[in-house]
Amino acid sequence: MRIYPEKLRGDLQKRLLPVYLVSGDETLLVQECADSIRVAARERGCSERIVMDAGRDFDWQELLQHASNLSLFSQQQLLELRLPDAKPGSEGSKAICRYLDNPSPDNTLLIVAGKLDRTAANSKWFRAIDSAGATLSLWPVNPGELPRWLQQRAAAAGLTLTSEAAALLAERTEGNLLAAAQEIEKLALLGENPHIDVDSVTDNVLSSARFGVFSMVDTALAGDARSTLRMLQGLRAEGVELAVVMWVIARELRLLQALVEDCAQGMRPQQALQQHRVWKSRLAAVGAALERHDRRSMPRILQLALQADAAAKGYGPGDAWQHLETLLLAIARRSALHPVR
C-alpha cells in the first residue's frame, strides 16, 4: 500500500503496520518520515530498536534471526534495515520475502532505502512490502514548488509566510530543504511575530554571513560598485571564509555566462532569464548585469575569477581579497569593450 508523506502521521495515529519502506534521495524528507514511524512504534510498545546496515557484506540471516528471537528486555521490537542503494540483491530479496511470509506481531520492520529505480519498484521484494505494509517514495521538491513547501512548513510551525518571503527564502537556500527547514525553525524560535514578510526574512535570516555574500554579489550584478566594495570589506572584517565567497561568485558567473551565450545566439534576455529560472526578486540585478556584459567582456571577468580563485587556494600570486575587489568591480561596471546601448 502506498502512503503519501503528508498523510503518514494521520495513518500512524490509526495503526502501525508490520513493515514500512521509506525510500528517496531527499535526506530531510526521508529522515522525517522515518522518525515519525520510529515515534509511533515506540508509543505502541516497541521499546527496543535494532539497526542493521545492509552493506555489501551484510548477512541477511541476521534479519531472520532478529525476527525469530524474542527480546530479553521487551516484548516488541523495531527492526530498522538500512539499504542505501535500494538493491538488496537476490539473497536480500529472498530474506525480505521470507520475513514477510509470516511477520512477527511483536515486531515492526522499517526499511530506509535510497531512491528506487524502475527495476526495484517492480521487484518481488518491493511487491511483498507493498502487500504486507506501506511504501513511501520521497521525491525532491521542485524549485517551482519550494515556496509553497516553505509556506506549509511555516504554517506547521505556527507562522504565516508571505509568498514574497517564501520566494526569497527559497532562492537563498538554493533548494536545500535542510537549510530551508533550519531557517524556518530559526524564525519560529525568534517568536517575535508569527507573520513573516520579506523584511523579517532579510533581518532575521539573510543577515548571516553566508547570505551576506549573496547580497554582495547581487549588488555587484546590479551595478553598484561602491556598495559592493563596502560589503566585501565588511565580510572580510567578519572573518567570512574566502572559499564561501568564491563559491557564491563562481555560481553566479556560471549563470551569467550561460545567459550571455543564450543572448548571443539570438534569445531575448527576458526569455533567457525565464529559461534559467532566475527568481523574480533577482530579475533586476541579473538583468542589469546582462545589459552590461556580453561575449566581449565575459572572458576578462572569468580570467579575473580564475586569478582570485588561485590566490585564495594559495597557488596563485597576490592577495585574494584584492583580486576579489578587482573581479567585483569588473562585474559591477560596464566594460570599455561594451558600449552603452
UniProtKB/TrEMBL annotation:
Keywords: DNA replication, DNA-directed DNA polymerase, Nucleotidyltransferase, Transferase. GO terms for biological process: DNA-templated DNA replication. GO terms for molecular function: DNA binding; DNA-directed DNA polymerase activity. The keyword Nucleotidyltransferase applies. GO terms for cellular component: DNA polymerase III complex. Pfam families: DNA_pol3_delt_C, DNA_pol3_delta. Its EC number is 2.7.7.7. Residues 214-333 form the DNA polymerase III subunit delta C-terminal domain. InterPro entries: DNA_pol3_clamp-load_cplx_C, DNA_pol3_delt_C, DNA_pol3_delta_N, DNA_polIII_delta, P-loop_NTPase. Residues 20-130 form the DNA polymerase III delta N-terminal domain. It catalyses: DNA(n) + a 2'-deoxyribonucleoside 5'-triphosphate = DNA(n+1) + diphosphate. Belongs to the DNA polymerase HolA subunit family. This is DNA polymerase III subunit delta.
